[in-house]
Write a structure and sequence with these properties.
Blueprint: E1 10-11, H1 41-55, H2 66-76, H3 78-83, E2 98-105, H4 110-118, E3 122-127, E4 132-138, H5 142-146, E5 151-156, E6 160-162, H6 180-196, H7 206-209, H8 212-219, E7 227-232, H9 238-243, E8 250-252, H10 262-273, E9 278-283, H11 288-300, E10 306-309, E11 311-313, H12 323-333, E12 337-341, E13 355-359, E14 362-366, E15 373-375, E16 388-389, E17 398-403, E18 413-419, E19 425-429, E20 440-444, E21 453-460, E22 465-470, E23 500-507, E24 547-551, E25 557-562, E26 567-571, H13 586-603, H14 609-619, H15 639-646, E27 654-656, E28 660-663, E29 676-685, E30 691-699, E31 706-708, E32 711-717, E33 722-730, E34 740-748, E35 756-763, E36 767-775, E37 781-783, E38 787-797, E39 805-810, E40 826-828, E41 834-839, E42 845-850, E43 859-864, E44 882-886, E45 902-910, E46 917-919, E47 922-929
Parallel strand pairs: 7-9, 7-10, 8-9, 10-12, 12-23, 23-26, 43-44
Antiparallel strand pairs: 1-6, 2-4, 2-5, 3-4, 6-11, 13-22, 14-15, 15-21, 16-21, 17-20, 17-22, 18-19, 18-21, 24-25, 27-29, 28-29, 29-33, 30-32, 30-34, 31-33, 34-35, 36-47, 37-46, 38-45, 39-43, 39-47, 40-46, 41-42, 41-45
Helix pairs in contact: 8-15, 10-13, 11-12, 13-15, 14-15
């Protein structure tokens, strides 16, 4: 779902539920109600009714989110509905009475996953490292799951927002939700248009305002040798941007393409400023645990040097680094430079703040019939105000309450209530905290926030420092006399991690074309086509710091104040992506800063993340308050200054390429036992500068194999040039057919990127032209809908030994597009939902297809072969049913390194909801050696 306050993109655990008052509101023609700065009888009575439910929780229910408990009881206990006849919890419940939850485990196991599935749960994501199972579960079975000894808590599915900015109040911009099918059709139509008429590439205005274009020309540094990766909602229109010439190939974590296009827009910004950098992507929108996992996958699987995201999960603590922040610190410790959006939630200086934090002040005013008192927001000791009023434009806004207890160890129990001007409780969050839960409450305001105000109640425990935050609204004086109370420090979560560089926003060109709220001052504009200078103003919505923390990641006390945000970069820039031109928000600013970091590393590859950050901060243009401030950090980063500061120079990047073989004995292209072959090893310079004095050393650890000479001089290799040399490789007569000969190539040259290394595995013998086939002939295996665990078939292989070639076919007797067809290899509506993976007996896997095929049905008589002319990733629904020979997403040859004998597995996962199908007939084709 899109649209939060200021248009910030919001993705909830499900479809939003419009929240209504618990009791009937005062009629419109009644006399105005005078502001109550204390808790009145009506409010107290309604809170008491909710507290009664809290006090009656069973041990299992005490581990379930309070809104889930109330929603569940409403459906089975008439008394609950009678006591609270109009309560709306905000829980999204499907027509099948299921809801999305995160099951947090004390100990993770497959048994827990199976138990969730046995309770009727549909698995959405699994994170063993973060002990989380995300699933769509019947509401009536939540307590059963929570009652397990290995379950710590059952929460509403963690939700998040990106940090792009749109005008929420513009009704013309509010379009009805587009179905998956219609979205796919739109993308295919746009793709066809781009393939017919490719237009000139759109370049972000930030390329000029950050002096990146000029810096590339002066320093001859283009991003070569660096991999820039993004995390956001999705890259639904990636193929459209590639067809338009806006993006090159993008390395995507398999099955993690996500949905939406903010990620596509971010990738275009990265590519505009660092055009020769490699690119990668993974979605951040399948729960907080999956987000943390994907951060690590980008570094440790895809090898990303610079990572940027634009996402905040509402459950991220301001006061302690949680699972996402710890993942950020882990990749930073490994050498990645991590950037994150500071947020669009406003700041005190511009009067746009929706944040208050400080010590809980016990008002002495009891609430409800149980122990509990409300916080006093008014710092005047002679006055009390137990509510903080919201502006009239803070509807549909997530609100969070965090307090300073360690994560998973909160003994102090705080609750959050939203009340209207008449004293009616509108919505609430009152989770149980008894020493094993997080110090966290969350609610969402109704569509109309007029006259609403928030109360923080300490149900039991000690006074703690707490943070009350609106994600898209602001606090404002009410019409009936309540005063707003705000403090700086909105930026939090992984953007405030030590390993992250938090990025604020300033406009590159035109001003944001709408008021944040009616009556606001004019929004600032940028210098385009000029460059930023010290007169530039930041965006009025950019979130402020600093960030106080109270605990180390392990929960031990550690109080510190972190300067956040760190720097500022451009937003309001052009991309070719529909809905993101111009692209406003810190979502646009963060990739601009990340791209400049990519240029820094391209010009000086040995720099550490700390040195990259130091270069950005030291050379930033100071704006607004003198020196480092809590809105813009050190100021606006500039590419030319940063490259000069680091002594950037065009780097060579000479790498050994795949060798070719000529057997000296028979002239064949194969190594053979007892023979010597001439092996040609090319070296290509893909860098920005000349590779001077290039040499290659070729060695092997394979017993009995000799190489002569050991090294060769390649001379100077110009940019884009390839130079080749030959070596003699002798294989002993005892070498077995299909055995591997490993060649290790080490290329040295003048420059910081030297040396580069590469390993090549060559096989002894000639590949057989005959393939042995190993087919699955069992019963059809249903592919579970929107479940990453997928469906798997086994393919036992015997009598092959080492494999020289692999093909994989999805079979079928008669091909059709019919829903539920029984004569195809895989029957499935919307093949674009599927990820297919082949795994060798060694455990190594290759992705055959991943989210390709759009809304086309069924795969039949399709062969996946590395030598195929066309990639399966290029298919559209016009190619259904998907037949013919296709190049897989990965390379099947990567599975040839070990013996083929053993059990292979083929897995198909449906990673998007609402479609179904089965695996029916597949075959593994394996050739040996002769």
């Amino acid at each position: 779902m899109r649209r939060s306050r200021r248009g910030t993109r919001l993705v909830t655990a499900g479809t939003a539920v419009l929240l209504a008052a618990l009791t009937a509101v005062t009629p419109a023609n009644a006399d105005p109600v005078k502001a109550s700065k204390s808790i009145n009888d009506r409010t107290a009575a309604q809170i008491a009714a909710l507290q009664s439910i809290k006090k009656s929780l069973t041990p299992a229910e005490s581990k379930v989110d309070s809104a889930l408990v109330v929603e569940s009881r409403k459906r089975v206990q008439v008394g609950v509905t009678g006591a609270l006849p109009q309560v709306q919890t905000g829980v999204a419940v499907s027509s099948n009475s299921t809801t999305l939850v995160d099951v947090r485990a004390k100990q993770f196991s497959d048994d827990l996953v199976n138990a969730v599935r046995a309770a009727g749960g549909q698995i959405r994501a699994v994170s063993s490292e973060n002990r989380t199972v995300r699933a769509e579960v019947p509401l009536a079975r939540l307590a059963d799951i929570a009652g397990r000894a290995d379950v710590a808590r059952v929460e509403q599915g963690s939700d998040a927002m990106t940090q792009g900015v749109e005008n929420k109040r513009d009704k013309k911009s509010k379009k009805p939700a587009v179905s998956k099918e219609d979205k796919a059709k739109q993308i295919e139509r746009r793709l066809a248009e781009k393939q017919v008429a490719v237009q000139a590439a759109k370049v972000s205005e930030s390329d000029k305002t950050h002096n990146a274009e000029a810096a590339r020309g002066s320093f001859h540094v283009t991003g070569v040798g660096v991999k820039l990766c993004a995390l956001s909602d999705g890259i639904s229109s990636l193929a459209v941007s590639q067809a338009a010439g806006e993006l090159p190939a993008v390395d995507v974590v398999p099955g993690q393409e996500g949905s939406g296009d903010e990620g596509t827009a971010m990738l275009e910004i990265l590519h505009d400023l660092a055009p020769n950098a490699e690119l990668g992507f993974a979605t951040a929108f399948n729960g907080d645990a999956s987000f943390a996992d994907n951060i690590k996958k980008l570094r440790f699987q895809l090898g990303c040097d610079v990572i940027v995201d634009d996402v905040i999960y509402f459950n991220e603590s301001p006061f302690q680094d949680g699972i996402i922040a710890r993942a950020v610190d882990a990749v930073a410790a490994d050498g990645a430079v991590f950037f994150s959006s500071a947020g669009n939630q406003g700041n005190v200086a511009d009067g746009t703040a929706g944040h208050w934090e400080g010590q809980f002040v016990d008002s002495g005013v009891g609430v409800g019939k149980f122990a509990g008192t409300a916080h006093d927001f008014n710092p005047d000791p002679n006055a009390k105000q137990l509510f903080n009023p919201l502006s009239n434009y803070s509807g549909d806004t997530p609100v969070t309450l965090h307090w300073a207890d360690p994560l998973g160890q909160s003994f102090n129990d705080y609750d959050l209530y939203l009340v209207n001007a008449q004293g009616n409780v509108v919505t609430f969050s009152q989770n149980n905290q008894d020493g094993a839960q997080d110090p966290y409450e969350r609610l969402t305001t109704p569509t109309s926030s007029t006259g609403t105000r928030l109360a923080v109640v300490k149900f039991r425990g000690e006074d703690r420092h707490f943070a009350l935050s609106l994600f898209g609204g602001r606090f404002a004086d009410s019409n009936d006399g309540l005063k707003k109370f705000v403090t700086p420090g909105m930026t939090r979560g992984h953007s405030a991690a030590k390993g992250a560089i938090s990025v604020a926003a300033a406009p590159a060109a035109q001003a944001l074309p709408f008021d944040l709220e009616p009556g606001d001052p004019a929004n600032p504009k940028g210098p385009y086509p000029g460059a930023f200078d010290s007169a530039q103003k930041p965006e009025r919505f950019t979130s402020d710091g600093p960030r106080k923390t109270f605990f180390a990641p392990d929960g031990t006390p550690l109080a510190e104040t972190r300067q956040k945000p760190d720097i500022t970069a451009a937003d309001g820039v052009t991309t070719s992506v529909s809905g993101f031109s111009p692209f406003f928000g810190t979502s646009a600013a963060a990739p601009n800063a990340a791209a400049i970091a990519g240029l820094i590393l391209s010009g000086n590859p040995t720099l550490t993340p700390a040195e990259v950050k130091e270069a950005l901060v030291t050379t930033a243009i100071d704006i607004v308050e003198s020196g480092v401030d809590n809105r813009t950090g050190a100021g606006i980063v500039m590419a030319d200054r940063a490259l000069a500061h680091t002594g950037a120079s065009p780097q060579a990047l000479a790498r050994a390429q795949k060798p070719t073989i000529v057997n000296d004995n028979d002239g064949s292209a194969f190594l053979k036992p007892g023979t010597t072959s001439t092996v040609t090893v090319p070296v290509t310079n893909g860098g920005d500068g000349t590779a001077a004095s290039t040499s290659l050393v070729l060695t092997t650890p394979t017993a009995g194999v000799t190489i002569a000479p050991r090294s060769k001089y390649y001379g100077n290799i110009d940019v884009g040039q390839t130079v080749s040399n030959t070596f003699k490789v002798t294989v002993p007569a005892t070498a077995g057919l299909g055995s591997a000969v490993r060649l290790d190539a080490r290329v040295t040259f003048a420059g910081s990127t030297s040396p580069t290394t590469a390993t090549f595995s060559l096989r002894v013998g000639e590949p057989s032209r005959e393939f042995k086939t190993f087919a699955y002939t069992g019963q059809p295996i249903a592919i579970p809908d929107n479940d990453p665990t997928g469906a798997t078939v086994s393919l036992p292989v015997t009598g092959v030994g080492a494999a020289s070639n692999l093909k994989f076919s999805i079979d079928g007797a008669t091909c059709s597009t019919a829903d539920g067809a029984t004569t195809v290899g895989i029957d499935h509506t919307f093949v674009g939902d599927l990820v297919g993976t082949l795994t060798a007996p060694s455990g190594k896997s290759v992705t055959l297809f991943s989210r390709s095929g759009s809304l086309g049905n069924n795969i039949c008589q399709a062969v996946f072969d590395d030598s195929a002319a066309r990639a399966f990733s290029s298919v559209t629904s016009a190619d259904q049913p998907f037949t013919g020979t296709w190049r897989p997403a990965g390379t099947l040859s990567s599975l040839l390194g070990e013996a083929a004998d053993g059990t292979w597995t083929f897995k198909v996962a449906d990673v998007v909801n609402s479609d179904k199908g089965s695996i029916r007939a597949v075959t593994l084709h394996v050739a040996g050696w002769v």
